[in-house]
Amino acid sequence: MAAIQVRNVTLEENPAKFTNDLDFNIRFDCMEQISDDLNWKVVYVGSSQDEKYDQTLEDVEVGPVTLGANEFVLNCPAPDPTQIPPEHLLGVTAILLAATYKEQEFIRVGWYVNNDYESQEERDQPPAKPQYDRIVRNVLVSQPKVTTRTIDWK
User: Fold this and answer.
1) Strand-pair partners of 74
2) Which distant-in-sequence residues (6+ apart) come within 8 Å of 6 by Cβ?
3) Which of 79, 98, 94 minimizes the C-alpha distance to 139?
4) What are the distances in angstroms from CA 151 to CA 36, 68, 70, 144?
5) Which of 11, 21, 82, 109 minimizes the number of CB atoms within 10 Å of its CB?
């Protein structure tokens, strides 16, 4: 059995302005004592065509982890829109949350994200120069893709 079992991950504000921070509320159970901290990392996929546009929004160690129920809020800054190719700023992309223990990934959660302008007029005719403050980010939180892996917890 896994020493850590992630119970729930929720996004505090969704949909939200593209420029707003992302706050993930993470709940997990620690089933047996572990000796090291857990690493939690959030990556925003800037372009499905090239990983060089991926942005690490947060990379944090959490610990010491106590037995039983644990919960924390992982605050991530918004992606830097100037580091995303303009042709990939709007439309569908992804956000990934990965957790590791002793450099072994034991869970990855991915969500599709749709970015678009708030107004129908701008959706139909996007401005020539992106207006970041008028873009809305909608994370499809109801359809996460969860991958778990068996690791050595010793």
Assistant:
1) 24
2) 26, 27, 28, 99, 107, 109
3) 94
4) 14, 20, 20, 22
5) 82
pLDDT tens for the chain, 154 residues long, are: 799 999 999 999 999 999 999 999 999 999 999 999 999 999 999 999 999 999 999 999 999 999 999 999 999 999 999 999 999 999 999 999 999 999 999 999 999 999 999 999 999 999 999 999 999 999 999 999 999 999 999 9
Overall size of the chain counted in residues: 154
Lookup: tokens for 29: 């159970």
Q: Which amino acid is at 65?
A: V
Q: Closest Cα partner for 139 from 114, 108, 109, 110?
A: 114
Token pair in block for residue 129: 């120069």
pLDDT at 131: 96
CB 20 within 8 A of CB 140: no
- Amino acid present at 21: D
- Identify which of 7, 59, 60 has the alpha carbon closest to the alpha carbon of residue 31: 7
Question: Distance of CA 137 to CAs 6, 25, 67, Å?
Answer: 25, 18, 36
